[in-house]
Design goal:
Layout (H helix, E strand, L loop, with lengths): L1 E11 L2 E11 L3 E6 L6 H8 L7 E6 L2 E2 L5 H7 E4 L10 H6 L12 H13 L15 H14 L4 E5 L7 H17 L3 E5 L3 H7 L2 E6 L2 E7 L5 H8 L3 E6 L2 E6 L1
Parallel strand pairs: 3-8, 3-9, 6-7, 7-8
Antiparallel strand pairs: 1-2, 1-4, 4-5, 9-10, 11-12
Helix pairs in contact: 4-5
Amino acid sequence: MLDVKNISVSYRKGELILKNLSFSVGKGNILVLLGPNGAGKTTLLRSINAILKPQKGVVEVENSNVLQMPASQIAKKLGYVAQRNTAGNMSLFDAVLLGRKPHVGLRATANDFARVSNTLQQLGLGDMTMRNINQLSGGELQKVCIARAFVQEPRIFLLDEPTSNLDLKNQMDILHTIRRIVKENSLAAVITMHNLNLAFRFADDILLLNKGHIVAQGSIESITPQILSEVYGVQVEMIRHKGHLAIIPV
């Protein structure tokens, strides 16, 4: 569904941030990007979405090259939620309705309004629709941005630390919702995370980055404590508790 082929990215001429990365994500799958600060996770997401243009390589969604698409077409294929989001002077409902922009003509329809309302209910924002988004907490604003990506109806979600401003309950709720939407609609998601335990709980596959290189990729069972210890510089152990892998620093 998503195929990234040999992409390299640099911010300054001659200094590569990402170096010949290749991987795929299939329908109904969640790929979690892990790695220490500065590993290149956010740069990779922005490159997949063509916000940053790779110096070389190809990004394909369902066999179409994203890097050759106009922005309006990319928005129908990829829904991107940045790590940091700024507020504005509009209602929460209108902020989410902006996600329908790739699909609407001159004006939004009853179907667009219904999609927004249903999504806000799913994310626990249904009683806040008329609040101004510049009055929201960081966690509430994060949920608004995720809701806007959902109503955009992309084929692939690109989510940069979507749980970073959320409390534990909302972290679990958001990740369960992402997984349900991806599975039920045969979509895909690429998510950057720092919380290893949440990553191993919700990922179908892990891609471990360090210094712009792929260190390891595959199922959660293929990522060993030794690999994590080498990348993060901290000794860890893995235990299985109630069917889930848990990462414990030692």
